[in-house]
Predict the 3D structure of the following.
Amino acid sequence: MELLNDVFTAKAIFVGIVFAITLGIAAYSTYFERKIAAFMQDRIGPDRAGPFGILQPLADAVKMFMKEDFIPANSNKWLFIAGPCLSMLTALMTSAVVPFGDTVTVAGVTFDLQGIDVNIGILWVFGIVSLGVYGILIGGWASNNKYSLLGAIRAASQNISYELAMGMSIIAILMLTGSLSTKTIVETQQAGHWNILQQPLGFLIFLICSFAECNRTPFDLPECETELIGGYHTEYSSMKLGFYLFAEYINMFISGAVMATLFFGGYDYPGYAFVAGQFGTTVAAFVGMGALIGKALLFVFVFMWVRWTLPRFRYDQLMGLGWTGLIPLAMFNVVVTGFGILIGQPILAGIAGVVILIAGLFLNDAIFRKKKLA
Amino acid sequence: MDISYIWYFLSGLTLLSALMVVLAKNPIHSVLYLVFTFFCISGHYVLLNAQFLMAVNIIVYAGAIMVLFLFVIMMLDLRKNKPDSKSPLTKLAGVIVSGVLLVIFIAAFHKNNMPSPTAEAVGFSSQTGMVENLGKILYSEYLLPFELVSILFFVAMVGAVLLGKREAGERNF
């Protein structure tokens, strides 16, 4: 009983820390988003609040809280409030199954650096992601505004379409690992055997789908300001709007962490054995937690980088890419992975799959497409 | 705390939210109560140690099908498309039919005297609901029904695509 209590306390503290880290990173993502945007457009960016503007997120938070909290007269009041709450809730629930690190021993208590290790880990992530759309859908409808409703409906159809391809790309990972548990998926990738080597195509599909699931440019059609004013959050103000924006940044960080878990070895890093030998496994596990967060932040940077590189898609292009581009590609990836397992050379098959795909696309283009006249 | 208390609480919640689906005036509220009902049913799956079914129930029903329900209802203008109120005769017929159905169900359960399953029953394993065991059973013992169900799904999918397809020259809106 004593041991149970100790592990329980340690886990509770760990969950609290993960919660704080997630919120902190989400807050500072807003600052770095603006700084990176400024850098890419040759501007300076926010530099007034504190040195280099690092107090900008605090100033933004104060501004958000001080603004008038307005609820439109003809809106559905309770659902209007429930929308941002649901967005925030689903954004924070995903990190429960992400393994942040290996087993550690602190003050005589041994526990995993992971919220819960369930044997359906990756399905949990998938389920919560599929629920994420409710916040947007309910908020958009409750606003009683045509633009909000259109934004919400776009978000719903986009999420459902891209979930399919995302699930198919995860299936290839499951075929290699043979387990749904996120912990087992990471453990099979230790010592540099990262899944990205065997699944370059699967990673690409997953990355594109996570852009769509997070409603980030080039797939931010639900909040496309040239067509829909502000999209689903047109009617929102004050901290309710803040919650919607905040949930987006949390989703970015968590999807980065999930991508690192599935494809980039999770908490694995070069020199793990050396650190474990020098300072013990506990220190090595905490460094691993740092490595995972570092990888996740790298993906957050990729999200921002793409935002200022690619223009927004048109809506029919978005749907066409999802249904006729990514889903067949994901099926092809599953077949290639199966073939790789059959011949016992998954890495070779992974690379050969990409080569065959590119060659096939070129061939298809050369034979069936009419040449454009100059 | 005994696990049966959790079961009673969850069952009560399930029945309450299922009732609210029928009683709610606003269709959007009905759909949201239905989503909540699916969550309660997923809770029952967890109590039965069937985590895989719980996850799939949430992904498929709460995550995909109900989103489409909500989607379609949001597209309708609820103020214009109020259902006409039924005539007393229709209401009476509805009450009689559902009442008879209830009596039949109660009689059937009463007559058969269903034994309640116990943990000591022969062939009981708490690990049946785990994904590995479920997969093994599904792909060996129940392979034929499984494949038949997948053909059924495939036919339904082809039908849906065919219905959704626009004929040449049809209005493009």
Q: What stands out?
A: Chain A has 15 helices and two strands. Chain A has one domain: 72-368.
